[in-house]
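Weekly sync, protein design subgroup
Attendees: M.S., D.O., the rotation student, P.L. (late)

Item 1: inverse folding check
M.S. brought a backbone from last month's batch and wanted to see whether the design step gives back something sensible before we order anything. D.O. pointed out we never logged the input encoding, so this time it goes straight into the notes. Structure tokens as presented (443 positions):
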């Protein structure tokens, strides 16, 4: 016996036991799947509990994401720390659902080579059995050994035993017939080529039934795992189709026995989902309440954040900062208001520009960054509604401070924009028209 025979002994012993007791390869595969489901049930239940906890903590995970922003490295570090503190495995919800696929490999090996893994024959003994049954050009590989196992029957069993000598006790006849379908055959898409019989049609239908039941089990799993109508564990369309497509490919690429395993796995999986849903009903309800509480706290925190931001903005506006941006001149020119001195409007000259050679004050490059003060804008309707509820007095002050109007005063070819006082009266310009004349224009 090689290492693979030793590793597969539990699986092959179980399948052999069911084959000998029930004398049906199909029933043996169904019961084999049932035993696997029962053994893995506690792990599957644990995985579902982990998924419930994961859904409850999703709100806190979103807060971590908002706090970290685009810093992925920091986000991953904080997320791993969060998982460790709450004893959550992010793959716990879906990892256990993939275990049936893991069992496909040993089962596939046993189905492909029944004489080696179920009857524990060496390759020399398998070849001897083939020669004794009249298969002269037999070679190890492919599905030849499965075909050889299907050739054995009660009439030639003694001949096969005589060919292997000491290993004869392990030989037995495997009944591959399951409701008139030969499970040792590979289903064909063109099932009509060798004549339309129930055997060929049944083989063709097995992969389709397998894919349909796999799809149904996906929907049942999605339905039983939902928290409620609003908090539902949704799977993408690709994830839903993955299982059926795998089963369809397996059905038409490998012996029909694997279709029986996949069909049994889907049927028993749906029963398991219903049972788990009943057992975890209280967990689902507790998770639903906790999620609702988290959503309520998140809404209150967001409302408080908006209230503070609105009050800060209103306080800045009420302190004298205009809520309106000052319009610019329509064409190139200088700020003429900077040239005024006393009652003479152009005492410094029309071309005077105090900002022509700006200077930058010194700032320590190693010191703290100077915060940029943004000019507050007008209060939005949402901010007004928040302030009307929390601080109506501050809202009234902000609205009064932001009522400054804009007046356009023509000065020759230039356009000067001046802010009028809060009473709405234009600024006084005594002697303006007398001071401005053609002589000023020539100068």
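Designed sequence read out in the meeting:
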């Amino acid at each position: 016996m090689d290492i693979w025979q030793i590793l597969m002994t539990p699986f092959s012993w179980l399948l052999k036991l069911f084959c000998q007791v029930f004398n049906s390869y199909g029933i043996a595969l169904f019961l084999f799947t049932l035993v696997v489901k029962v053994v893995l049930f506690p792990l599957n239940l644990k995985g579902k509990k982990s998924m419930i906890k994961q859904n409850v903590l999703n709100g806190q995970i979103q807060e971590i994401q908002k706090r970290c922003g685009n810093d992925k490295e920091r986000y991953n570090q904080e997320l791993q720390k969060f998982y460790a503190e709450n004893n959550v495995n992010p793959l716990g919800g879906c990892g256990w659902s993939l275990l049936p696929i893991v069992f496909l490999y040993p089962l596939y090996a046993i189905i492909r080579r029944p004489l080696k893994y179920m009857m524990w024959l060496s390759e020399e003994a398998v070849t001897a059995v083939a020669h004794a049954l009249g298969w002269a050009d037999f070679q190890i590989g492919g599905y030849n050994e499965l075909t050889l196992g299907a050739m054995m029957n009660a009439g030639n069993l003694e001949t096969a035993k005589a060919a292997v000598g000491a290993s004869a006790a392990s030989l037995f006849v495997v009944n591959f017939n399951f409701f008139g379908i030969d499970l040792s055959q590979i289903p064909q898409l063109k099932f009509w080529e060798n004549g339309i019989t129930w055997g060929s049609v049944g083989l063709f239908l097995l992969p389709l039934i397998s894919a349909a039941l796999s799809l149904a089990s996906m929907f049942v799993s999605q339905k039983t795992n939902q928290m409620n109508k609003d908090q539902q564990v949704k799977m993408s369309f690709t994830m839903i189709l993955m299982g059926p497509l795998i089963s369809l490919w397996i059905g038409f690429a490998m012996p029909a026995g694997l279709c029986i395993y996949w069909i049994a796995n889907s049927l028993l999986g749906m029963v398991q989902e219903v049972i788990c849903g009943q057992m975890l009903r209280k967990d689902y309800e507790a998770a639903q309440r906790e999620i609702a509480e988290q959503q309520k706290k998140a809404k209150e925190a967001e409302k408080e954040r908006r209230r503070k931001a609105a009050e800060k903005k209103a306080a800045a506006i009420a302190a004298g900062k205009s809520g309106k941006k000052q319009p610019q001149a329509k064409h190139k020119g200088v700020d003429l208001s900077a040239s005024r001195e006393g009652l003479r409007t152009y005492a410094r000259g029309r071309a005077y520009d105090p900002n022509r050679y700006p200077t930058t004050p010194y700032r320590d490059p190693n010191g703290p960054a100077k915060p940029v003060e943004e000019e507050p804008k007008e209060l939005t309707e949402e901010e007004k509604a928040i302030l009307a509820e929390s601080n109506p007095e501050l809202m009234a002050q902000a609205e009064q401070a932001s009522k400054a109007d804009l007046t356009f005063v023509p000065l020759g070819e230039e356009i000067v924009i001046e802010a009028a006082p809060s009473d709405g009266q234009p600024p006084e310009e005594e002697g303006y028209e007398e001071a401005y004349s053609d002589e000023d224009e020539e100068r």
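Discussion: The chain has two domains: 3-118+174-279, 302-351+377-442. Confidence is low (pLDDT under 50) at residues 227-233, 322-332, 405-443.
Action: P.L. to compare against the previous round before Friday.
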